[in-house]
């Protein structure tokens, strides 16, 4: 090949932070999504689909990562000079949809959505620029019962997916309580918004970094193992102690905190209101039969998105796995959500209360594989029956056979390449075909077709030592009348199950 022509070749590569997914993984993911969908529909939620692209001003600026271009959002300008963005979650588009269709929708409006979202972030291990979420939201109810129901539904979904009780917990906290704690340490007001965000991010890293690491992030900062330094919130020691006392305070028990939360909140009205709401959510969950092993309040829970206004939730997997060095680690969060009473109000003159939950599909899929859930277990991908093309001038005959099989509900295709029989058989193997249909001129003259059972043939081949044995036995290959093709294929497929 001339050098000039070689220079024009484009390198085949996947963009960073994105991934290809093949048939087996897609099928397993589909089974997982079907289970989640069934649970959501049991709770009365109905399907909704919104576009992957929204007007940028409709999405708002709620992402926590402020250091990336477009504040974490992929954006571009349309030909009418309007700014558009790829959605970064499924909640902001829902708020736009509800506001746009407010008068005709039933309130409360209960919907679920599944789809890819996009983050303009630096990719890394477990951190993708495109990933799938599965959300359920109730819009139009301010009742803590709506929050409790979301948590119960998340717990039911975990168990229906095969995660044993005791291996997960739905943890609840409240942004109002967090705001109350911030007030108690002197971080109220808009002038402290940036420092509050640093504090929330620090609390959110408690599981990963432990109390000492969080203490550093609340103070002057922390240097990680790579030598990178993260600037801290610069809080004085008494404020750091207050934050850690709150974050490590444990769960609420028997209608009261396991530590003096109300004393910690001082005179903060919003904090006290948040604490009372958490206790009510917990009581509702207990009345419905969901014990603390499934749903409990945990002060360490912090959700990153800035639009949350009340209770926040997290689905946490508690079983241990191993990191790349073989050390035991907890799997951690596979989903979360919370109350966002101001998001729909961005489009309307009055606020509309709302609460919801989002499952991280890829992360949950990885967890289910780790525990060996049969829902996502590796199953052989079964391809179509392949009709071999041995006589090029008889394409119509082969197409007719494939059409007859499809008419009976059997996936089938004819070989459309230019290779001979041996290569066609290799193609059928690579397609994971259960059967190959063979009809050369001799079979056509006899009014027959040959059916080759590729599954049984592969098993038999393992026990055949020589070509002479192979030719003598011709394993899993038999001739049938052409008129009985469909019936015989159906019979052969049934025997493979």
From TrEMBL:
PROSITE patterns: AA_TRNA_LIGASE_II. One of its GO terms (cellular component) is cytoplasm. InterPro entries: aa-tRNA-synth_II (IPR006195), aa-tRNA-synth_II/BPL/LPL (IPR045864), Anticodon-bd (IPR004154), Anticodon-bd_dom_sf (IPR036621), His-tRNA-ligase (IPR015807), HisRS-like_core (IPR041715), HisRS/HisZ (IPR004516), HisRS_anticodon (IPR033656). Homodimer. The keyword Nucleus does not apply. It is found in: Cytoplasm. Keywords: Aminoacyl-tRNA synthetase, ATP-binding, Cytoplasm, Ligase, Nucleotide-binding, Protein biosynthesis. The keyword Membrane does not apply. It holds the Pfam family HGTP_anticodon. Gene3D superfamilies: Anticodon-binding domain, Bira Bifunctional Protein, Domain 2. HAMAP family: His_tRNA_synth. Its EC number is 6.1.1.21. Residues 31-384 form the Aminoacyl-transfer RNA synthetases class-II family profile domain. It comes from the Bacteria. It catalyses: tRNA(His) + L-histidine + ATP = L-histidyl-tRNA(His) + AMP + diphosphate + H(+). GO terms for molecular function: ATP binding; histidine-tRNA ligase activity. One of its GO terms (biological process) is histidyl-tRNA aminoacylation. SUPFAM superfamilies: Class II aaRS ABD-related, Class II aaRS and biotin synthetases. Belongs to the class-II aminoacyl-tRNA synthetase family. This is Histidine--tRNA ligase. It is an enzyme of class 6 (ligase). L-histidine binds at residues 89-91, 119, 133, 137, 303, 307-308.
